[in-house]
Design brief:
This protein has 194 residues and is mainly β. It has two helices and twelve strands. The chain has a single domain, classed as Glycoside hydrolase, family 65, N-terminal domain (Beta-galactosidase, Chain A, domain 5), CATH 2.70.98.
Length: 194
């Protein structure tokens, strides 16, 4: 059952569309097209975490490109947290005392890149460079407070629509945390009715 109560959120997920140096905007639920691409977002809170469905539509007669950054912040992240990105999948793993979290993105993007940015001066400087240059600086592991970042690159034919979904799942290390991968698979296979 959906639970949209903000105080029960386990993650904060934010999207940012990037066109060129100095030209980017935070993505809202829906809004005016950016570079000819209309954006629709749908955020859901579940017992196991959060999900964000996204749809991009080229509303022009021309081929368009778009880069989108998605930032995922695990609200239980603390100084003792370790963040690691998977080398073979589009997933992040976070370990904090007896808790763990995992995020993953499923999309028809031309390319998906990922990085972990520490929430310190160095990480914030890297994030500012990412926004300026439209590239994701590779940072595979960190400890302490951090955020996970995805960069998705798209090429759209005229009037083409592309969709995707980002999942963020939380569990305990000893117990249901061992089943995070199964939860992710079940969430993809058995999506609830809207």
């Amino acid at each position: 059952m959906k639970n949209n109560n903000r105080k029960n959120k386990k993650f904060h997920i934010q999207g940012i569309a990037w066109k060129e140096a100095g030209s980017y905007i935070p993505l809202g639920k829906s809004g005016t097209p950016f570079n000819g691409i209309k954006v629709n977002l749908s955020e859901d809170s579940e017992k196991w975490g959060e999900s964000l469905s996204f749809e991009f539509e080229n509303v022009t007669k021309e081929t368009r490109t778009l880069k989108v950054f998605f930032l995922v912040e695990w609200l239980a992240c603390c100084e003792e947290t370790i963040g690691v990105l998977s080398l073979s999948k589009n997933a992040f793993y976070n370990y904090s005392k007896n808790n763990m979290a995992m995020s993953n993105v499923v999309s028809s993007a031309d390319s998906i890149k990922k990085s972990v940015y520490p929430l310190n001066l160095k990480g914030l400087q890297l994030w500012k460079k990412s926004l300026k240059n439209g590239s994701l600086y590779y940072y595979p592991i960190t400890n302490g407070l951090h955020m996970m970042a995805y960069m998705l690159e798209y090429t759209f034919k005229p009037f083409e629509v592309k969709q995707g979904k980002l999942f963020a799942v939380e569990g305990a290390v000893h117990g249901d945390g061992l089943f995070l991968t199964d939860r992710m698979k079940n969430g993809l296979a058995f999506q609830q009715e809207k």
